[in-house]
Structures are given as structure tokens and as C-alpha cells.
Amino acid sequence: MNPDSSSPDKKEIERESEAAFGERPFAQLRSAAKTKKLIFDAVESGDAGTIHRFLQRNEFPGALHKNFYPDEKELSGLKNLLLRFFYEAAEASIRGGFDPEEAETLFEELSGRLNQATTVEDLVSLEKLVISTYGDPFFRKTTQRHCSLPERVNRFISENYMQKLTITQISNALCLHPNYLMKKYKAESGKSIMQAVNDKRISEAMKLLLTTEISIDRISKKIGFETPQYFNTVFKKRMGKSPNQARREAKASGRRKTDAEPEAED
């Protein structure tokens, strides 16, 4: 049976596409489709290694080929393509065990950021964030989790509290969307991430106040506060007293205990 002569063949499609988009668009679009499939397979399985390799690209990792970027003044078409890509990534993650409710919540947050994007660079960053977050194996129900999200955040804080910390820095380190991270952490821990950062810093400050003669200024720098004044403010709010007062009381308590010890031994 002869094929319908009215149906366009592959070469005709290639010619029409080439006239509209440039040289070899059919091959480029086929390559882009294969790349998308690889990405969605990696997202579904939580393949961190493959995802990392795609995220190293300085262009769209999966939504479309770089030759088809529109002018930045006409981003609406590209945003529509990316919204579809976001949805497909969410569906792939759900198939792999990502909690459906969390996937939908994350999709809504990312869609809002997509609407606010104004440059191609913004969109590239968002696409990479979508891939890294939905592809995170931590959120797979089938994965044996060794720690909760608050535990992961607290571990990062414990290792980095001496430095200036921001939500963006922490979310990037954990490959999570900042808004999603903040909401999830507070829901599970009962406090904000920055409260947890300051709690850790004050805890370490107390150790230094009680066991060393380091000045208040040096302590504030060692534990990550930008100024001694801010350290004093946060410390007093948490402890109900200033760092100097806490140190004086600790010394007085230590002397009373030392004086009492010989009597206890007799």
C-alpha cells in the first residue's frame, strides 16, 4: 500500500523546520527529546550522578535546544514550554516515590517564580532548580532515609555556623527550593532555619564563655555573628542575660562549688 501522498514525510518536515529555525532542526529536536528522556529517567530514579552532569551545562539542560531560544522580550512561549517541563519533572518524581502532595506544592511555588522571571538566565536557573529538587533521592518514599530534613539542615548548620549563613546558601547546598525548604523545616521542627542557626551559635557561645577567657568580640566572630552588638542582642533574647553576665554568673557558681567541695568530702 502506498502511503498517503498528502502526508508530509521526514525530509519535508526537516526542510520546513530548517526554513523556520536554521540548519538541521529535526536532528536537534530529536537530540533534545532524548536529553529530556534521560533527565526524566534520572529524576524518576533519583540518579544524583546523572543529574549533576546535566546541571553542569551553561544552557537549558532539557527543555529545548539552545538554537530555539526566543528573544528575551518574548519569553512567554519559552515559559509555557518550561511550565510543561516542570510538570513532567514532577510526574517523573512522583513515579519514583516523591510524595505527590509535596510535588504539587513545589510545582506551585516554582510556577510562581517562573511567572516572575524576566531573562533567559532566570529561566535556565529555574530549570536546573526543578531538576535538582525533584531528582533529590532523599524525598523518595522507597529510599531508606537515615535522617529527616531537619536533621540534614541541622547537620549543615553544625558544620558551617561559623560562617555567614543564608537561606539561599543552605538551600543550594541541599539542592532544594528555598521556599520549600523553609516551609518543610518549620513544619517538621517547629522553628525557622535562622532560629536554628542562632540556637547553634548561642550554644557554642556558652561553651566558650564558660570554658575560656576569650573576649566577647572574638567569640562573636568565631561563632558567625557579623558584629558583637548583634551577638549581644541575640544572646540576651535567647538567654535573658548578656554574655558578660552569663560568664560572671558561671564563674561565681564555679567558685561556690569549689569552696563547697572540701566540706562535702569531710
Explain this structure to me?
- This protein is mainly α and 266 residues long.
- Helices cover 70% and strands 0% of the residues.
- The chain has helices at 10-21, 25-45, 48-55, 76-95, 100-116, 120-134, 149-160, 167-174, 178-189, 193-211, 216-222, 228-239, 243-265.
- The protein is elongated, with a radius of gyration of 27 Å.
- The longest helix has 23 residues, at 243-265.
- It is built from 13 helices and no strands.
- The protein has two domains: 20-139, no CATH class; 149-265, Homeodomain-like (Arc Repressor Mutant, subunit A, Orthogonal Bundle).
- Helix 5 packs antiparallel against helix 6 (120-134) and helix 7 packs across helix 10.
Helix content: 55-70%
Residue share in β-strands: under 5%
Q: Sketch the topology as an H/E string, one letter per element.
A: HHHHHHHHHHHHH
Number of strands: 0
Shape: elongated
Secondary-structure class: mainly alpha
Strand count, sense and barrel status of the largest sheet are:
none
Terminus-to-terminus distance: 112 Å
Total helix count? Answer: 13
| Mean residue pLDDT | 78
Number of domains in the coordinates? Answer: 2
Provide the low-confidence segments as ranges. 1-8, 16-22, 255-266
Kindly provide the radius of gyration, computed on alpha-carbon positions and rounded to a whole number of angstroms: 27 Å
